[in-house]
Amino acid sequence: MSLVVQLWGEEFFKILLLIIVMYLVYRFTENSTSAVRISIIVTLLIFGLAHVSAYGNILQVLLIQGLGVHI
Length: 71
Description:
Blueprint: H1 2-29, H2 32-49, H3 52-55, H4 58-66
């Protein structure tokens, strides 16, 4: 049960971060396409970096935990 709660928390963190970054980028660019693209990349990089303490290798974390989620 705790694994389910942990996974929900991670997804909630990702979605909330995506919305915040998208809002901020859109306020500066006023271009919705750019806001979505930039916010997805930033969110996945931050999400990947949040797992550095668990995996240790930054390249592995960014490629597998961050960008690998959506490839």
